[in-house]
Amino acid sequence: MSRKPRIHYPGAIYHVMLRGNAKQTIFYGDEEYRYFEDILAQGLEQYSLMLHAYCWMENHVHMALQVTDKPLSKLMQNISQRYTYWHNKRHDRVGHLFQGRYKAILVEKNAYLSELVRYIHLNPVRANLVSDPIDYPLSSHAAYVGCVKSPCWLSVDQGLGHFGKTKSSAQAAYLHFMGQITEEELLEQLRHGTKQGRILGNEDFIKGVLKQNKEKVSAQITIEQIVDVVAQVYQVSPREMTSASRARNLAEARAMTAMIGMDHCDYLLSNFALYFNRNMPSMSKLVRDVRTRLTKSHSMHERMEHIKDQITTISEA
Questions:
Q1: Does the N-terminal or the C-terminal CB of the chain have fewer CB atoms within 10 Å?
Q2: How far is CA 261 from CA 214, 253, 264, in A?
């Protein structure tokens, strides 16, 4: 499965993630956070983008960005190149600072913008850095609740607009929403999308943006077909994959099946949890572990690409 082009249209909103290469630190102190914000603000103005929410972590960033006529890539190339040059000069180093190209998931605004804002603002809580997002100063959460003045480069009105007509009612509803638990399946979708890792939305939204991008909507491949391909590559039987065995190779094969099925075949994590008779938290952990190991294991990455190629052949037959 070749890498698909970015989807762009005026008004599109993306969950953007930019990570340090090999999880290396990209921010060491306040001066670096401020410089990143300065060049981001310049880029937002230059390329006519809106930033709806953000969170700066030590080795990665999350943003909810909305484009106009200029594609997202213009901004991301600008800030990544400028920050890398400045950072390397500051620390007397050379080489890549960020991990490959940035990840951007196109998000259906009406259905998922509020979920995306919550996901971004709760990153420090999930990382066990704080117990309350208000205690983390490097996100837009405080601006949403009105504890700090929103910087000129941040737009909170559209995000808050999903919660109420007046500012006070919207902030109260937003705080209540932040206290609710996000289902594991939705967390996976916010991290990885529901269509080839590029789109988060319902079926009509996905079909619409693919048609707008002049892409063919591939025929649906069944879970059984994915399992058959993965079983062949891992040299196990489909029956073994659906068994109760916790053998390492079978656990990896199940996780690989779920990951590829979610990223490239429009399935949900719950589909695979049900198929393999696993609960959602354990299935989610298996998939996260495989994603982490993929960044370090060349052989596993080759195995994944081989599976994806075979699935492409089946879906296009």
A1: C
A2: 23, 12, 6
